Amino acid sequence: MKLFRIAIPAVIVPAILLTLPGCNTNSSSSRKSALWEKELGAVLNTAESPDEAHKELNLKVDLIAKGSYGRRIFREMTPQYITIHSTQNYTGDAYAHAKALKRGALRGGVIGYLCWHFTVQDDAVIQHIPTDERGEHADFDGPGNRYSIGIEMCEHNGNNQLKTMERTAKLAANLMYHHKIPIENIRAHYHWPREGYSTPNKNCPHFLMENGRPGDTWRWFVGRINRHHQRLIAYDEAVRQQQQQEEEERRRNSIVLHFWDRVTHWIRVS
Question: Is the pLDDT of residue 184 over 50?
């Protein structure tokens, strides 16, 4: 079921990625991201239709009831960012998080209950609130909550972390496409400071951070999101070119038919 509310240059722009939060390149983090890239394999350098990309997510919509807990107040949102988190919960899968959110078990935030938009595990994505509603997952009343779609990556025992990251990258690419969110607006939870905390910038998602901050591994992950997104953009470009060719073919045929009509008319009156 599709509920995103609201599409080939398969090249990452280095200048964009360099603007993302980071720290000095660390050799161990470089080795980690290189190993992960090898295990996952390169993102295909071919166009992919948005519909097919959506099917691959295995999205399951299990919304918090409207008017209850994290949705007890309707707060409309036009998403401008995507914020990536990790659950740091080693016993709860995506389905357990969905149940917890639906019964108001997770307290906090401005309205008293935590909520975010999607939870991802290795084989599925669960949606908890529509993408045009504000969540409570980042920075209280700050821009992270007011303008960003929140995605939590599962860490429960038995979950495949690499597959979870890859499914998250594909989800983020889909959301970028549907909401026209630029690559520089993919943010780690770390990016949004929490007022009143002794460590306002949270080490999250911790397995993509270096020394508690975004660095080489985070840039690798954002680059992978970007490559998936470029496949969707490439599909649009291929469709546009095909439509342009068909229109040109119709135009040529129209010219030929018009010329032939004139010739046959001249022959008849001669």
Answer: yes
